[in-house]
Amino acid sequence: MRELRVACERENGERRVPEYVLWEPSLTVKLVESSMREVRELKSLELGYTVLKEADIKQRQEDDISKVSTVLSISRVDATILLRNYNWNVSKVHDEWFADEEGVRQSVGLLERPVVQVSDARELTCGICFDSLPRETITSAACGHPFCRACWRGYISTTINDGPGCLSLRCPDPSCNAAVGEDMIDKLATAEEKKKYSRYLLRSYIEDNKMTKWCPAPGCEYAVEFASGSGNFDVSCICSHSFCWNCTEEAHRPVDCATVAKWILKNSAESENMNW
Ligand SMILES: [Zn+2]
Ligand SMILES: [Zn+2]
Ligand SMILES: [Zn+2]
Ligand SMILES: [Zn+2]
To answer: Tens digits of per-residue pLDDT, 77-96?
Structure first.
């Protein structure tokens, strides 16, 4: 049962500050948890940056996708496409969407309904190999353009192996800009290609986001999110490497980035001259 306790605390040896504590074990746990979270937040606020491990990055990415998917009432796959197009900036996605949903859908290729009438014929013609095939072997993105699974697999495999451009995959029909999202990748790519794709997606979250960067230390897989605008860019990764978040050279406070860049240029020119 709840019991209201009145605790009196002496402050500066003279003033008595009464403190009311609602005594309930579950509440105490919650209070401790929230104050621990506050301490963590205060710490990163004080430092002006947060070091992110892979699990933190995934968690943040998932949270952002959930936020956009809930607020705009769209699927997680569509929310991911939107976020990637707006450099993972959640508020930018919300602003643009509510200002001009139609325009945003158009530019990122999120169609509300198919652009081609799907006939109910038993056989359909693939738009790449032109084979007439049973409709269950034909797959389409939201636009409805029909392609056989073999052609889709080839198309998806080539783009994934070409690099991170696969994250902005569109329908193979040259006149169509319908986005091809992770649901299609899950259906049609090999296990290894799916792994590559999700790797690119994770990297994109750090590399396309203006507030995050990878730690430049060789072999380090942590990222640093920068928050403060105090003009001090020195950060210290948990791998122990200290670097300037702005220019990613070694920490160089109080010298500014431009001076450091000139100095590095001068040094490399000098060492080139020494080789002659
Ligand atoms: Zn085909
Ligand atoms: Zn299409
Ligand atoms: Zn590091
Ligand atoms: Zn710098």
So the answer is: 999 999 999 999 999 999 99
